[in-house]
Structure formats: C-alpha cells, structure tokens
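Q: Flagella basal body P-ring formation protein FlgA, please. Structure only.
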Amino acid sequence: MPRHRPRPRTRALLPLAALCAALGSLSNPLLADEAVNDSVRQFLEQRLLEQGLQGSVEIAASSARMPACSEPQPFLPRSGQRLLGRVAVGVRCADSQTRYLQTQIGVVGDYVVAARAIAAGETLSADMLEVRQGALERLPRQLISDPLSVVGMQTTRALDAGSLLQSRSLRAALLVERNARVSVEALGTGFRISRDGVALDAGALGSEIRVRTDGGEILRARIVGRNRLQVAQ
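A: Structure for Flagella basal body P-ring formation protein FlgA:
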C-alpha cells in the first residue's frame, strides 16, 4: 500500500515565527534606542505645549552602544531649564540606570524689534516697537517677546530700525537725575518729615541713591516717584 507523507505544519509554525520576530525586535538595540528617543520627544513636546509653544525636537544620535532601557522616564537635569536650542535630557530606566541625551529644540515665536531708529536714552512707547516672528533658538537669549513689558523703559544705546530689542540694552526710566532738586520724606510711627535736597546719584523707581539735604546732611533714600524719595525709619 502507498504511504502517505505527513503534511507540513505551516499553521503551527507561523505563530512560532511571529513570536520569534517579536522577541527579536525587543532585543534589537536600534529599536530599543528608538523607544527611548520617542519617550524623550513626547516628553519635550508636552513641556512645550504646557508653555503655549510648538516646536520641533531633534535627538542627537549616540556613538556609544547603550544597554536596553525598559520603562524610560525622561526628566530635565536642571529645574527651570530653558527649552530652546541645545537641551540635555536625562532618562531613568527601570533597572536604575540613568542616561543623558542631547536634543535640539526649535521654536518659532514672537520677538520685538525697533520700528524706527531709537536714540540712546529715549523712553520707549508702543509705536516705537514692532513684533516679528522667527526661529527663537537662533536669536540671543536676552530677546524681548512682549512689547508691553518694556514700554516706559529707556534704551542704553542707539538702535537702528529693525534692530532686535534685548534686555541688556534697556534700563528702567530714570526718575531722578544727578544734581536734580529732590524732596525727601522720612516716615515713622505717627510722624512724617519732609526735607529738600540735591540728588548725588541718578536712579530709577525703587533705586536707593545718596542725597545731600539743604542742611548739609548726606542721606540714602529710595526713589518713589519723579524727584521724590523716601527714608524708612
């Protein structure tokens, strides 16, 4: 009688092949690294959204072969870290190992420029400022993003039209000029004394400067208004 050859068990082998492929993907260091990168990318994108920003996140490839990292937990090494340009991100793994990745964050946002030429010492008004948009990571860290935050301040140097406004080029408006006549008040419990004098220093609101009273006494007082100072007792 003719013998029947057994049919190949293709159905039984298919699940086994799929299982082997899955196990192989878990042990593949390239796929494992990509999982870590994805967790870092999602972490940074969420942080940007919390700040009302949208940007691109690129992760630098590591030349060193790193061990597998299960349950990656990204974190920022420094509190209050600026999420712009080159940013280091730490990753804690389930086996207590910690690694650090270098990322590049690009953000498009507002920045303020001079709408016209501004002389040194001019007091800024809203019509002197213009808001533009661009890649913030390519601009200086001291840029101004909100024009209203600098209205009333003075420039410390001349600015051409279109020049970027930076905090280092601005100062609070001077309310007292050197050698100006000023009024100094001394306040205490149940009394208030006012004397006139000459400012020996210039200063802005809240600054503490020296004053020579008309009686020849040298005092230190805090500026509270235009040519008005106060000595707290």
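A: Brief note, in case it's useful. The helical segments are 10-27, 29-50.
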